[in-house]
Design a protein that fits this description.
With 400 residues, the protein is an alpha/beta fold. It contains eleven helices and twelve strands. The chain has two domains: 283 residues, Zn peptidases (Aminopeptidase); 108 residues, Alpha-Beta Plaits. Bound molecules: zinc ion (2 copies).
Length: 400
């Protein structure tokens, strides 16, 4: 079957599966769970995809709520769709949780894409893979999956997220999380202060040093921290104090340079106070997203085919960090953000966003997202030369 015909057939199949895909979004939305504890959501997704004949590994890579489901041929093009299904705390939903980042939508879209492709399987050679990736909002388990080599046999990765704008050229900052802990000597703060070594002073001097550093970093850099332990009582010289920082930059190269300076601020504070410094990375380190222009061209075309052509092309504007950045370093990744047609714009993590994350408008974009991912994947399954070009560019990009 020709590509054009196959794409049309995929639209038809997606239309037939509409209800099923919306049900996935509903279920995950109505059962919000914190990152790493997505037991109900992951089991639901695994049960659902098993019904379609996918082979499932669950739990996966020693992570309780991660899974891998696949169907198709070994030694052929292997395309993975990355599901997310963790919710956020601090909302009015069940257990005070809510899908204010719309990960219910991601789960439904990626599973939906796999279901549609599985029904077209006789028309192409290749493997369809759905990987369940827990705790995007916190631990970022994709980092663990990357380290475990999960993507070594994957050729291409797709994922879409709801955001404020349509964007196929997303940016995410590289990020390290560092905790500085200082050990001093406790003493009576009034009668024997000269006997004490003040660990809290070291924390304050670390902040002072970092604040001075801000003037001398490039504008992409973000350094933000909290005091995680500031002592016990005002009449005791604090012998333990600590602070936590996120340090971010546009790419890891710059981050490494800035991070060393941040660590030196803490070392300076150690020297100034006579305390003892230890430091550790308290969460996974995230890498910046590497985009692939060939994948972007494919996605741009297939989004236009479903009526989405107004794309944000510039990489300017606010951004954070995400664990799909790490995936993009080891595997060509097409990460796309789709906007909901709502006015005024409501952004993810806002309370108001809960009214939209599983709305009719979200469903409309969900079906477009599935169709665009499926048709993009079909192009790659059917054209080995195209895959080769994508990989060639990826190798060039990671060596920059
Ligand atoms: Zn989020
Ligand atoms: Zn999110």
């Amino acid at each position: 079957m020709e590509l054009r015909e196959l794409k049309n057939l995929s639209y038809k199949i997606e239309d037939e599966l509409r209800k099923e895909i919306e049900e996935v979004s509903d279920f995950i939305f109505n059962n919000p769970e914190l990152g790493g504890q997505e037991y109900i959501s992951s089991k639901y997704l695994v049960d659902k995809i098993s019904q379609y004949g996918f082979n499932v590994e669950y739990p996966y890579c020693n992570i309780d709520t991660a899974f891998r489901a696949e169907i198709g041929d070994n030694e052929e093009t292997s395309i993975a769709f990355l599901a997310e299904y963790d919710a956020l705390p601090g909302y009015d939903g069940p257990n005070g949780l809510g899908h204010a980042c719309g990960h219910n939508w991601i789960a439904a879209g990626t599973l939906g894409a796999c279901l549609v492709l599985s029904k077209l399987k006789k028309y192409f050679k290749g493997k369809i893979v759905l990987i369940g990736t827990p705790a995007e909002e916190t631990i970022g388990y994709k980092c663990n999956l990357v380290k475990a080599g999960v993507f070594n046999d994957i050729d291409i990765v797709f994922q879409m997220h709801i955001e404020a704008f349509n964007n196929i050229n997303c940016k995410a900052l590289a990020m390290d999380s560092i905790e500085f802990s200082f050990k001093g000597v406790a003493a009576h703060a009034a009668s024997h202060p000269h006997m004490g070594v003040n660990a809290l002073d070291a924390v304050q001097l670390t902040f002072a040093g970092i604040n001075a550093l801000r003037q001398h970093v490039t504008s992409d850099v973000r350094i933000h921290g909290i005091v995680s332990n500031g002592g016990e009582a005002p009449n005791i010289v604090p012998d333990r104090a600590s602070c936590k920082f996120y340090v971010r930059a546009e790419d890891r190269k710059n981050l490494e340079v800035v991070k060393e300076k941040v660590i030196n601020c803490a070392k300076g504070a150690e020297l100034m106070t006579g305390s003892q410094l230890t430091y550790r990375y308290f969460e996974n380190s995230f890498d910046n997203i590497i985009n692939n222009s060939i994948l972007q061209d494919i996605m741009r075309k297939n989004l236009a085919n479903v009526g989405i052509s107004e794309l944000l092309e510039s990489q300017d504007g606010p951004t954070g960090s995400t664990d799909i950045g790490n995936v993009s370093q080891v595997c060509p990744t097409m990460y796309t953000e789709l906007a909901l047609d709502i006015c005024p714009i409501v952004r993810v993590h806002e309370k108001e966003f809960l009214n939209y994350a599983n709305s009719l408008e979200a469903y409309d974009k969900l079906h477009k997202s599935v169709k665009a991912m499926v048709t993009s994947a079909l192009e790659i399954y059917l054209d080995k030369k195209l895959l080769k070009e994508i990989k060639k560019e990826h190798i060039k990009n990671i060596s920059l």
